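Escalated from tier 1: adenosine monophosphate holo job.
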Amino acid sequence: MAFKGSYAGVGTVSFRDMLLKEQILRAIGDAGFEHPSEVQQNAIPFAMVGQDMIVQAKSGMGKTAVFVIATLQQIEVDPDDDGVDTLILCHSREMAFQVHKEVERLGKYVTDVNSACVFGGISVTEQKAMIEKQTPHILVGTPGRVLHFIKNRVVKIDGLKRLVLDECDDMLQGSEMRRQIQDIFKEAPKEKQVMMCSATIGARAKGICRQISQNAEEIFLDDNKLTLHGLQQHYVEIEEKDKIKKLNDLLDTLDFNQVIVFVRSTERASALDKVLQKAFFPSIALHGRLSQEERLERYRKFKEYESRILVATDLCGRGVDMERVNIVINFDMPKTSDKYLHRVGRAGRFGTKGLAVTFVCGEENKTTLQEIQDRFEMKITPLPTAITASSYKN
Ligand code: AMP
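Tier 2 regenerated the structure:
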């Protein structure tokens, strides 16, 4: 049975039915994608013919592939033009890195198309040299660094054909990023395809998305009822002093491939990571106060399974695709229901099974839990004393 928001709209449309270029189909096959997900079935046919897009679909359902495939399908390389064809803007450095990997993976047989990735925290001189060498047709990056290169004419977007905003609501919410994006829009030609996507697009972000696009095809899947199929969600009422012991118990008893433990601050991430390492758990911490090199190195380590427990702040809460994560623990309650959704969406990617456990400490946390339940109409139940591993592990 196909359920809304599933990846398995089985049998209705195949990637081949979409009449994609042979090189893209081959790469899709290599990536192991058998069927297009619901969002892919709905969005790719519009996006691949140049339509502006506003796409909301839950986490982990293959939104990245929508705009990457649409771009690779349309791109036409002019050897005499050293400008950028498609600009993909991401809200965090890790996301830029990850999206670029997807461009490389799905574009590996489209050999005349070059791509590159730029973001802050890494030497501007190095990246400038890399861009001059690569002359990318597809550039993925964070808005600040991309704008810097546009202003310095290292990156030319006078002939830009496509502009993508990934996790658009987040990027358009913060005033600094919004300003940077506005500046990038000013430098780009008026006629271009604009594609925007996120797991959550609130009314305000939707308004801005409409302003910066033209007759966009709007695809909103599960807008009001954001549930993550396959994800079991529980909470534990607990006092602050008992959290570490409870976490210890959970890590000892639950059967995890990889787990992300979310905390509310950088300091708490470092401190909890140390506690776990002292207790011989294979843990690593990821937060915004590390150097860029260190951040990427730790991200890579976790993604490549060299470490199985990640203690993170909300920096890792969005979009980041760690396919082996089957458990998310909210050691500290997220501030908002949106943040909750993004965090727990790290487990149970692409319809796989997963488990989310949230520590609820005090009245304020209880109110947030209630808001989450109301907003997403999802059932978050008290953590049972025993859970069978087969219910949250594929
Ligand atoms: P995303 O929502 O873009 O972060 O994608 C989540 C994960 O699903 C990524 O690891 C993708 O490689 C994977 N994925 C995307 N599309 C498909 C598909 N049609 N079949 C199987 N896996 C997919």
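The two ends are 18 Å apart (CA to CA).
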